[in-house]
Write a structure and sequence with these properties.
single chain; 101 residues; mainly beta; 2 domains; three-stranded mixed β-sheet
């Protein structure tokens, strides 16, 4: 579910990072060739994974365990590298988040 397109506001809530869209773009998605459109969206979500969209040559065959992380507001968030144009990218993302395709 969309949280935000292009800009995300983050806040620390205890030991987690919360993400939400700025009010001015909440529920809006820019679709290349179509324009800006209203879409179903959630108001906020907990940030549990950062997906770094990279060239195919930069996606490791086997990612390191544990995944590298970056601190956001003092909280480490793991980073996964994926090729956004690979057809299996959405399935890989779902697998990384839920443990099942």
């Amino acid at each position: 579910m969309l949280i935000s397109d292009d800009q995300v506001l983050v806040t620390r809530q205890g030991d987690v990072v919360a993400a939400r869209a700025p009010d001015t773009i909440s529920g809006l998605l820019e679709v290349r060739g179509i324009g800006i459109t209203d879409v179903a969206h959630d108001k906020h979500a907990m940030l549990v994974l950062i997906v770094d969209m990279v060239k195919p040559s930069e996606v490791p065959r086997l990612p390191p365990e544990p995944l590298p992380s970056v601190k956001i507001l003092g909280i480490p968030v793991p980073i996964l590298k994926l090729d956004p144009f690979e057809q299996s990218c959405p399935v890989k993302l779902k697998l990384a988040l839920t443990g099942s395709p």
